[in-house]
Design goal:
By secondary structure, the chain is mainly β. It has one domain. 9% of the residues lie in helices and 27% in strands. It contains two helices and eleven strands. A three-stranded antiparallel β-sheet has the order 1-2-6, with no helix packed on it. Strands 3-4 form a two-stranded antiparallel ribbon. Strands 5-7 form a two-stranded antiparallel sheet. Strand 3 and strand 4 form a beta hairpin. The chain is elongated and about 50 Å long. The protein starts with a helix and ends in a 5-residue tail after the last strand.
Length: 115
């Protein structure tokens, strides 16, 4: 994003990618770029006009327009797997085995606790 445009954005939009080119009248009428022109980057989701990191155990691998229903959520890691931290942008980031699971081939199997 161009630095002169980014400087005009409110702080919560500085984390989002802006679809380019912007019509000139949008920059002269208001310093606030309408949310329909922004996208949420991988590893993030859109909540109450704020870009947030996907929580641990969730990821988003693509850019999503903020006016799309998909922008308000992240995808779950496969059963038995989680991410090492928040803000992950690929399914391959789901590479931490959860407690109580073991790897069997390509799957994570739940191992019941013995009593």
């Amino acid at each position: 994003m161009r630095a002169d445009v980014q400087a005009q954005l409110p702080a919560h939009l500085n984390q989002a990618a802006v679809v380019w080119p912007l019509p000139t009248f949008l920059l002269t009428i208001s310093p606030h770029i309408p949310s329909c022109l922004t996208e949420v980057p991988p590893g993030k989701f859109w909540e109450l006009n704020v870009v947030r990191d996907c929580p641990v155990g969730l990821y988003r691998s693509d850019f999503v327009r903020t006016d799309s229903q998909a922008a308000i959520s992240c995808l779950s890691c496969p059963k038995g797997w989680t991410t090492s931290s928040k803000g992950k942008g690929a399914k391959s980031d789901c590479n931490k085995l959860m407690p109580g699971y073991m790897v069997a081939g390509a799957y994570a199997l739940h191992v019941p606790l013995s009593s």
